[in-house]
């Protein structure tokens, strides 16, 4: 909190160009600013690779950061701000993909794979120890064959 | 002339690789020793030729030969010598040449390791390795020729991308490629063994050192890349789940699983089918990574080249080697007999669980990386899969694995005692839990998950240390006995402990990020900015001229709780040739923590300053180094230094060699 107050207190100049969040973008209300940072962290800079607008120095990211703050100042809730941005730029802007029909497989896959892999490994490992107790006892026929193999002389 | 020599050597290497791919294979099939041994000389020759070619490209860069198109596009006469040198692989063509150089280097190393490998396996592996070399040499020669001449030659080059003009470029790609490409050897061994039909503990012992070697370099490469991104990109992030990072992370996860499954195969002759599959998949993921990075499927800071023709070529290579080996696997694997038996509670089962979780983690990254591409291809819908996705999927998969790791580590082979293993780790677990609870109480209202993360990391470190202690220290024995026991303990046991402790250290570093803080402000000389435990006071902003850039350098006094530390410098550079700006963050290491300052735009005598307090951040990379050290210790284990046990040659065959 202290850092934000300090940042706001020292906010002096409007700055051309940008490198991630700039001093001039920081909102005077620290609570709002913190919400803005949290929202920005989940929004993708559209021209970057998997980088949030909070981290990006692209001009487009700056525009979006300012947009987010404008909506917050106007009194929007966090989800309303995100909905507003998604309505303009689509799901692509969300670093956390929404859970819907299109992304069902994406979200379910990791846990499904884990479950199947555990089941598979369990059945494979469990089927083994049958022979852990040592070799099966010989059947009478086998014993007889073995006897003839070991002592062939007994037979004529 | 030098460029032509390089080009010619590369073409010759392609021819030699064709021989390497075909003749030893023919020798193995016909049981002809002489033909089979051609592979070794071909591999050595091929390496020599590619090395010559690489040197030719290096010479063109060092001499700033601007009649070579590749040099023009990526170098500048004013670049410092070290960057002229590293520019060689700071571009698509050159980095592919480095790829092939390392590929043939590994082929040559296999050829030289005469005594440690069964001859048939070596011949087969060299043939497969040769086939991979043929594919990639053809790729370089036909789509990415680095020796293309330019006429008329321009007087000056276009300079290397300034972000790449850093020592990181000298270290990161070679390490990463040695790791990536090193897995080609395990792949070659797996395919050769499938063709040959002999897959046993001896195979695992022959393959394990190569797997370890590749894994060590991949670990170092990824860690180095992450640290480079951290200090170069200027916002203090070190991992972005960028598809290019994922491309290197997937083979790492699969390779980590492979290291563990080969242990089971070597010790107990079990898990053969899975280990072979894993060996194939690991290199397949390396190939996939090469495809993702080199084809231009994605555009990111990492990809220096994008060209659809190249993409299709690599895709064909990918389909051929992955599809071919998996087909071979499907055909031959059912013939393998399962070996040693083990109970559900045993070291073997613990390693199976390890593999299940690591494979799932790898699959998670795989799905997350490729899902957006496939979805866009199929439906046209664009989505992003970023860090929040991985936090919600990858982390929950990894945490249980790490929690049970110490228990698995202390289970006995064949049949273990779960209660005993749990008891042996009780002290480590108790201490770690206590530390986590104390941290939660101490930082009341702070993050809750992070102390638990620190506890998890501590648990791993402590259990590794205690495990070692238990093996070395016995009651009623002096330090001399301890020392001799420590010497007697196999290096692989040391390696295991170090590697697992390294994971713990990294996790502590990652978890501690929750306490990092950031402050932003416009400062004029004399003004101060505080973030977390650090305060900077701007002293001066002065212009400076470098060899190929102009810089604004800001100097700060740095304070830590009222005590002054060594001052810190951060700068903004403009590289004149491209007119491109970069930031050079000022970083002061303070214990295991760092103060990190980066600059924004300057205006009206003030300059935008971002100050971060990054507590314990160095542990992330120290942990990786310790992991790699663990791998190295394991690699020097006595059993790898001795020649692998040979199958007793059948006497009859020796008596009648002409048959």
Offer a few descriptive terms:
A: 156 residues; mainly alpha; Helicase, Ruva Protein, domain 3; 6 helices; disordered N terminus; B: 659 residues; alpha+beta; Four Helix Bundle (Hemerythrin (Met), subunit A); 22 helices; 9 strands; disordered C terminus
Name the structural class of chain A.
mainly alpha
Please give the number of β-strands of chain A: 0
Q: Rg of chain A to the nearest angstrom? A: 33 Å
Which regions of chain A are unreliable across 5 or more consecutive residues at pLDDT < 50? 1-19, 129-134
Strand content of chain A: under 5%
Mean of residue pLDDT values of chain A: 76
Radius of gyration of chain B: 27 Å
**Backbone shape of chain A:** rod-shaped
Helix tally of chain B equals: 22
Structural class of chain B: alpha+beta
Query: How many E-type strands of chain B?
Result: 9
- Helix proportion range of chain B: 55-70%
Enumerate the strands of the largest sheet of chain B in spatial order, edge to edge or round the barrel.
Answer: 2-3-4-5-6
Oligomeric form of this entry? heterodimer
């Amino acid at each position: 909190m202290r850092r934000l107050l300090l940042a706001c207190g020292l906010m002096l100049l409007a700055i051309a160009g940008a490198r991630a969040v700039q001093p001039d973008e920081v909102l005077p209300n620290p609570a709002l600013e913190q919400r803005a940072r949290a929202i920005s962290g989940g929004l993708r800079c559209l021209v970057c690779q998997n980088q949030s607008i909070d981290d990006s120095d692209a001009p487009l990211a700056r525009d979006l950061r300012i947009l987010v703050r404008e909506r917050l100042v106007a009194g929007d809730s966090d989800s309303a701000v995100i909905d507003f941005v998604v309505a303009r730029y689509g799901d692509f802007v969300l670093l956390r993909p929404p859970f819907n029909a299109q992304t069902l497989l994406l979200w379910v896959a990791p846990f499904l794979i884990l479950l199947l892999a555990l089941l598979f490994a369990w059945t494979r490992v469990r089927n083994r120890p049958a022979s852990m107790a040592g070799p099966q006892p010989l059947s009478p026929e086998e014993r007889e064959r073995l006897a003839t193999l070991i002592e062939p002389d007994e037979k004529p | 002339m030098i460029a032509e020599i390089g080009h010619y050597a590369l073409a010759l290497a392609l021819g030699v690789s064709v021989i390497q791919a075909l003749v030893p294979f023919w020798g193995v099939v016909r049981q002809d020793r002489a033909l089979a041994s051609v592979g070794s000389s071909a591999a050595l020759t091929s390496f020599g030729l590619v090395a010559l070619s690489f040197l030719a490209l290096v010479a063109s860069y060092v001499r700033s030969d601007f009649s070579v198109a590749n040099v023009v596009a990526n170098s500048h006469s004013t670049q410092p010598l070290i960057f002229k040198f590293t520019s060689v692989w700071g571009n698509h063509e050159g980095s592919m040449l480095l790829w092939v150089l390392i590929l043939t280097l590994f082929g040559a190393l296999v050829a030289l390791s005469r005594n440690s490998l069964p001859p048939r396996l070596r011949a087969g592996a060299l043939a497969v390795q040769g086939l991979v070399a043929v594919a990639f040499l053809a790729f370089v020669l036909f789509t990415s020729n680095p020796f293309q001449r330019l006429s008329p030659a321009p007087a000056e080059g276009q300079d290397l991308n300034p972000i790449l003009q850093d020592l990181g470029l000298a270290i990161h790609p070679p390490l990463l490629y040695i790791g990536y490409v090193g897995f080609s050897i395990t792949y070659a061994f797996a395919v050769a063994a499938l063709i040959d039909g002999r897959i046993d503990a001896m195979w695992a012992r022959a393959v394990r050192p190569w797997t370890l070697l590749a894994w060590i370099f991949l670990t170092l490469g990824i860690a180095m890349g992450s640290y480079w991104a951290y200090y170069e990109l200027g916002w203090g992030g070190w991992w972005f789940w960028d598809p290019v990072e994922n491309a290197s992370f997937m083979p790492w996860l699969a390779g980590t699983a492979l290291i563990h499954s080969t242990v089971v195969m070597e010790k107990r002759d079990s898990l053969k089918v899975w280990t072979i599959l894993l060996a194939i998949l690991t290199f397949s993921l390396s190939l996939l990574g090469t495809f993702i990075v080199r084809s231009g499927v994605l555009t990111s800071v990492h990809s220096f080249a994008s060209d659809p023709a190249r993409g299709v070529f690599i895709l064909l290579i990918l389909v051929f080697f992955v599809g071919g080996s998996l087909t071979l696997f499907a055909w031959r694997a059912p013939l393998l007999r399962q070996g040693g038996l083990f109970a559900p509670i045993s070291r073997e089962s613990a390693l199976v669980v390890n593999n299940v979780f690591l494979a799932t983690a790898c699959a998670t990254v795989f799905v997350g990386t490729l899902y957006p591409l496939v979805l866009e291809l199929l439906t046209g819908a664009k989505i992003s899969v970023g860090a929040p996705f991985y936090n919600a999927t990858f982390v929950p998969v990894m945490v249980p694995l790490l929690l049970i790791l110490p228990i698995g580590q202390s289970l006995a082979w064949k049949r273990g005692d779960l209660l005993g293993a749990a008891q042996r780790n009780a002290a480590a677990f108790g201490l770690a839990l206590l530390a986590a609870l104390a941290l939660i109480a101490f930082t009341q209202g702070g993050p809750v998950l992070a102390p638990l993360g620190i506890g998890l990391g501590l648990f791993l470190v402590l259990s590794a240390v205690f495990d070692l202690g238990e093996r070395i220290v016995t009651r009623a024995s002096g330090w001399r006995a301890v020392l001799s026991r420590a010497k007697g303990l196999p290096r692989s046991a040391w390696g295991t402990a170090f590697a697992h402790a390294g994971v713990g250290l990294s996790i502590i570093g990652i978890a501690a990020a929750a306490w990092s803080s950031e402050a932003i402000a416009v400062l004029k000389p004399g003004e101060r900015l505080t973030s977390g435990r650090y305060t900077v006071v701007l002293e001066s902003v002065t212009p400076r001229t470098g060899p190929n850039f102009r810089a604004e350098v800001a100097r700060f006094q740095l304070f830590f709780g009222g005590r002054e530390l060594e001052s810190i410098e951060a700068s903004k550079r403009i590289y004149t040739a491209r007119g491109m700006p970069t930031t050079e963050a000022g970083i002061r290491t303070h214990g295991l923590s760092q103060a990190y300052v980066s600059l924004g735009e300057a205006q009206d005598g003030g300059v935008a300053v971002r100050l971060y307090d990054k507590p314990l951040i160095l542990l992330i990379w120290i942990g990786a180094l310790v992991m790699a050290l663990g791998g190295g210790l394991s690699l020097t284990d006595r059993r790898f230094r001795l020649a692998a046990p040979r199958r007793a040659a059948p006497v009859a065959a020796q008596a009648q060699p002409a048959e």
